[in-house]
C-alpha cells in the first residue's frame, strides 16, 4: 500500500464507510500493480500466456495463434506496470457460460441432493450455503453444461447482486448454477485467486455498471463479460499480490470489528446514562443526573444514533413530568378534564361533534409509571373527538384532483412531518372522506408503520389507515409528545391485533391511558422539549458537517493514493 494511505490508515477507517473505501483502495492498488514490488526473478508474463494457450488448446482444440493475436491487440485503458499485459477475460478461461434452471423450477427441489447455486449464494467473500437449494442427482447429470467445480469463479449477471463474485473453494462437493450466474473457469487453477481480486475490484465493477442492460432488472451478457479487459502480471507477482491483499483485508476486518465494538460500547454508555434520567426517584436526583449528563454533551452525542436516543429520552422525560415541575399555582389536571368534558358535551348539543363516549377510569395496573402531583391519567379519547379516515370511491372521478391534499401512511414521516401525496380531493371527494383541521393529531393505525404520528398543519383528508384526534382545550403539541413516547407506542402495539400486519381499531386506540398535566405545565413542557429537540437538530447538523469534512479528506487521500 502507498505510504500516503498507510500513514493515514486510521483516518480512512474512521470515516463513514471508510473501511469499505479502504477495501476498494486495496483492490485498486493491487490490480494496477502498486501494491507489491516486482521481482526480476519472476518468469515473464509471456510464460504464463504460453501455459494458458497450451491449456486452452488441450481443452478445446488448437487456438494458439488466435489467442496470441488477441493478446497482442487487447485494448489498454490503463497504464500497466512493466511486464504486465492486458487480456480479455474470455482468453484466460476454458469455460465462461451461464447456468440454467431445471425444468420444473422450484418444484424439483429436494431436501437431499446436489447443490443448485443461485445468485443469493454468491458473495464476494465466498459461497453462502445456508439456504442453498438442492436438485436430484438425475437432473444434475442432465445439466452437464452447468456443473460447478472447485477452482471455478461464479459471477452474478442479473439483479441487485449483479457483479458479485465468489471463488469456489477446493473442498467444494460439486453442484449446478442458475441462469443468473456465470461460471468463470480459469485456464489455470493458479489464476483463480488473482482473477477473483480483479473481478471484485472497481476496475471490473465499474465496467459492469457501464455495460449492464435492462430497464427494470439489471443484466449483463456473457459475451460482454468475456470481453472485459484483465490486467495480467507474471504469475509470481500474482501470488504476492493475492497474499498482500488477503493480509490487508484481514486488517480491514479487524478495523471494522474494532469500529463496530466501539460504536456498540458508545451506544451502551449513552443509553445507560440516559436511563439514569428516566429512573430518577425524585426531582433532586433527576437534576443531579441531568447536570452530569449536560456537561458531557459534546463527548457523548457524537453519532446520529446517540442523538436519536437523546431525542427519544427527552420526550419520555417530558411526558413523565421530569423536565418541568408543576407550579404551585397551576390548577390540578382534574379541572382541565372536567372542562374538556363540558366542552365536548356542548359541541355535541350544538351538533358539532358526536355524542361523548363514556370511558372507564384508568386503574393502577394500567399506569406505566407514577405521575407528579397535579397530573392525572386519562383515556386518549377523553381529550377530544377521534375519527378514522376514509377513501372516496375511486370510480367517482369528480372526487379527485381538487385543492385538498389526501394522504396515507406514506405521507407521515417518522419526524412528524406531513408531505403532500400524489392524490388530492375536490369538494365532492371531501363529502365522502374524513377531514383533519390544523392542530388535529394523526396516527397510522395499521401495518409496518403503525404508530407514526403527526400534527396536521393544514386542512387535509386522510385514508382509513389513519386515526385522528381533534383535541379540546389541551395542548395538541403536548398530546403529540405523549403519542410519540415509548410508553404510548408500546401500548399501541400491545393493543393491536395481527402479527404480520398489526392493526389497532379506533375504540382500542381511544382507550389507551395517557398522562395529563395542568394546561400551564403542558405549555412549559412543550417549550422545554422544543428547546431540547432544537439542540438535537444542532448536534445532528454538527455531526453531518464533521462527517462531510472527514469524508472529503478521506476521499482526497484515496484519490491521491490511486493517482500516485
Automatic annotation (TrEMBL):
SUPFAM superfamilies: DNA methylase specificity domain (SSF116734). It comes from the Bacteria. It holds the Pfam family Methylase_S. GO terms for molecular function: endonuclease activity. Keywords: DNA-binding, Endonuclease, Hydrolase, Nuclease, Restriction system. PANTHER family: TYPE I RESTRICTION ENZYME ECOKI SPECIFICITY SUBUNIT (PTHR43140:SF1), TYPE-1 RESTRICTION ENZYME ECOKI SPECIFICITY PROTEIN (PTHR43140). Belongs to the type-I restriction system S methylase family. This is Restriction endonuclease subunit S. It comes from Ideonella azotifigens.
Amino acid at each position: 500500500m502507498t505510504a500516503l494511505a498507510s500513514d493515514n490508515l486510521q483516518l480512512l477507517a474512521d470515516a463513514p464507510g471508510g473501511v469499505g473505501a479502504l477495501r476498494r483502495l486495496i483492490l485498486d492498488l493491487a490490480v494496477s500493480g502498486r501494491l507489491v514490488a516486482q521481482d526480476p526473478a519472476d518468469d515473464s508474463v509471456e510464460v504464463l500466456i504460453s501455459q494458458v494457450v497450451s491449456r486452452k488448446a488441450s481443452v478445446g482444440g488448437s487456438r494458439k495463434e488466435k489467442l496470441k493475436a488477441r493478446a497482442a491487440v487487447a485494448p489498454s485503458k490503463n497504464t500497466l506496470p512493466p511486464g504486465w499485459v492486458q487480456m480479455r477475460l474470455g482468453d484466460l478461461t476454458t469455460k465462461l457460460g451461464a447456468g440454467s434452471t431445471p425444468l420444473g423450477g422450484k418444484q424439483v427441489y429436494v431436501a437431499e441432493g446436489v447443490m443448485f447455486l443461485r445468485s443469493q449464494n454468491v458473495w464476494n467473500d465466498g459461497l453462502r450455503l445456508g439456504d442453498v437449494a438442492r436438485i436430484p442427482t438425475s437432473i444434475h447429470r442432465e445439466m452437464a453444461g452447468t456443473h460447478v467445480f472447485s477452482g471455478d469463479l461464479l459471477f452474478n449477471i442479473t439483479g441487485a447482486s449483479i457483479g458479485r463474485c465468489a471463488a469456489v473453494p477446493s473442498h467444494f462437493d460439486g453442484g449446478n448454477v442458475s441462469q443468473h450466474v456465470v461460471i468463470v473457469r480459469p485456464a489455470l487453477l493458479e489464476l483463480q485467486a488473482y482473477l477473483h481480486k480483479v473481478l471484485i475490484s472497481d476496475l471490473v465493477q465499474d465496467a459492469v455498471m457501464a455495460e449492464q442492460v435492462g430497464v427494470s432488472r439489471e443484466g449483463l451478457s456473457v459475451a460482454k463479460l468475456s470481453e472485459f479487459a484483465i490486467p495480467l502480471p507474471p504469475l509470481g507477482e500474482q501470488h504476492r499480490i493475492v497474499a498482500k491483499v488477503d493480509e490487508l483485508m484481514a486488517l480491514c476486518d479487524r478495523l471494522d470489528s474494532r469500529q463496530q465494538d466501539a460504536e456498540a460500547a458508545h451506544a451502551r454508555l449513552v443509553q445507560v446514562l440516559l436511563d439514569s434520567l428516566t429512573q430518577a426517584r425524585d426531582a433532586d436526583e433527576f437534576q443531579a443526573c441531568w447536570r452530569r449528563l449536560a456537561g458531557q454533551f459534546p463527548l457523548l452525542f457524537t453519532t446520529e444514533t446517540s442523538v436519536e436516543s437523546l431525542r427519544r429520552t427527552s420526550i419520555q422525560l417530558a411526558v413523565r413530568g421530569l423536565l418541568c415541575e408543576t407550579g404551585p399555582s397551576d390548577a390540578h389536571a382534574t379541572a382541565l378534564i372536567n372542562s374538556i368534558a363540558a366542552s365536548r358535551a356542548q359541541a355535541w348539543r350544538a351538533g358539532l361533534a358526536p355524542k361523548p363516549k363514556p370511558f372507564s377510569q384508568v386503574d393502577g395496573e394500567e399506569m406505566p409509571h407514577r405521575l407528579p402531583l397535579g397530573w392525572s391519567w386519562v383515556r386518549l379519547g377523553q381529550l377530544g373527538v377521534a375519527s378514522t379516515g376514509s377513501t372516496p370511491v375511486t370510480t367517482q372521478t369528480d372526487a379527485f384532483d381538487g385543492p385538498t391534499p389526501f394522504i396515507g401512511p406514506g405521507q407521515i414521516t417518522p419526524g412528524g412531518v406531513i408531505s403532500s401525496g400524489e392524490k388530492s380531493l375536490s369538494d365532492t371527494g371531501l363529502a365522502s372522506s374524513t377531514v383533519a383541521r390544523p392542530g388535529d393529531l394523526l396516527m397510522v393505525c395499521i401495518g409496518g408503520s403503525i404508530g407514526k404520528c403527526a400534527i396536521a398543519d393544514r386542512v387535509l383528508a386522510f385514508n382509513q389507515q389513519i386515526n385522528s384526534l381533534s383535541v379540546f382545550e389541551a395542548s395538541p403539541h403536548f398530546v403529540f409528545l405523549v403519542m410519540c413516547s415509548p410508553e404510548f407506542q408500546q401500548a399501541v402495539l400491545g393493543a393491536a391485533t395481527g402479527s404480520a400486519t398489526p392493526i389497532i381499531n379506533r375504540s382500542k386506540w381511544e382507550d389507551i391511558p395517557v398522562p395529563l398535566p395542568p394546561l400551564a405545565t403542558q405549555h412549559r413542557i412543550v417549550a422545554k422539549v422544543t428547546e431540547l429537540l432544537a439542540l438535537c437538530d444542532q448536534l445532528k447538523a454538527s455531526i453531518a458537517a464533521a462527517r462531510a469534512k472527514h469524508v472529503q479528506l478521506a476521499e482526497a487521500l484515496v484519490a491521491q493514493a490511486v493517482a500516485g
